[in-house]
Amino acid sequence: MPPAETGATAWTWTVDANAFFGFNKQDRKFRDFSAWESQNWVMLSGARGVGGGVFRATTMLSFEPFTIPDLGSPQVFQTGETFQNAPLIDYQHPHDLFMGIGTDYRRAAGRITLLAGLDVVGSPSFGPPVFMHRPSAAENPQVPLSHHHMDSTHITPGVLRGGIEAGAFRVEASWFRGREPDENRTDLDLGALDSAAGRLSWNHGGWSAQVSAAHLKQPERLSPYNSNQYSASFGYTRGDDSRRFAWLAAFGQKREIHGTFDAYLLEATLNLTRPDALYVRGEIVDKDILDAGFHPNFVHLHRQSRVGALTIGYVRDLLRTRIGRVGAGLDATGYIVPANLEENYGSPRSYHFFLRYRAR
Amino acid sequence: MCSALAACAIACGASSSPSAPSAPGGTGTAAPSGPPTITITSAGVSPVEVSVGVGGRVAFVNNDSIPHDVAGGPEPARPDCREIDAVGFLTPGQRRETQPFPAARTCEFHDHGFHSPIFNGRIVIQ
Questions:
Q1: Which residues of B touch A291 (CB under 8 A)?
Q2: Which terminus in chain B has less CB density within 10 A, N or C?
């Protein structure tokens, strides 16, 4: 148990970091794409006892604004956010420099624990844990295609959180700014807290589950329409970073003026032996690639394309030191292409070859 | 790790297959061996105007690194010249032709997903 959990008033500091550096190859019907790039983040957290509870301050940074092109990381069928005021298609945007700046406080009150949090940049109570913090996705450098259906609110400028924990259950609510980050990846996109989310979660042993819902005011920068989002997930994690078996099954749904879009995800990481890990991710996601743009004064249902993706990857730790582990890995992804995208995409495939650093 | 990332900030972040910017503008005419071709790059469409005979077609090629969606009319709210809609969504490197234009007139086109005037142009059917 960390000293802060026992009421100690001395600060307890924790550092965590993860970085991938490698080659991303996307084989496409008309033109292939490739990039040398790095997905990365570093997190610093300090905790101490205050008033019978635990106060914690956290900051999380990503250097992706400098290690991924402004247009983003090539990824077939990926969508979400914009580049030069056009919706991104087939690219994953770089994450903001400031991924998290916030505080939270938890205090036991009888048989329950009260939770409160305030974030300059944080994550409202919606969806499963964001992919980069999920044990089931820890070895995978790719962002899920379902990211914007389930956990894309993980970088939200302005979040106020509250909750109650009782035994294995937790109920949370949050108010936050619903707008997605803008194209300036190094600023803070602060504004009014105009959106709300709620989540009921359960954790017992290695098992976890959650259901959540959110109302987002104008999440898309180019579109003046609101979105309601729903999520449910169920997962299991056993072991630590050295030996682990973790999986997650998740569902996400976006209800927008342009239609209802569903996403299903199943992913797992399995450490076969201490240095060797296999990972897999399967997804089925509704995308509006054919009508992604916002058309002023012109509202219509967007044509939907239900795409599928299956990634299989392997990572082997090459070096273990006091400050972390360095491994090398590779993965391949195949896609299920819906009929209305076959002429454009054919049978795309993706490959990653990378080095991975993890602090813990 | 931070120094490694700083080095990476210089070394990586580079992506291959970017389109080579080309200056939009000018007027094109039909090539002798095929329909006139309009090329899309990150700098816009080139040429911004082409001429074609009645019954002719125009080809669009996407040489940008992102998809484009070519549609008839000056903007989404004012669709026109539906023969151009046959071009539609083009992934990088993809080429597609309009339907034949049945009558003499001037048709405008736009990018249905990327509302920048640099992706607007005109087809003159003579």
A1: 112-113
A2: C
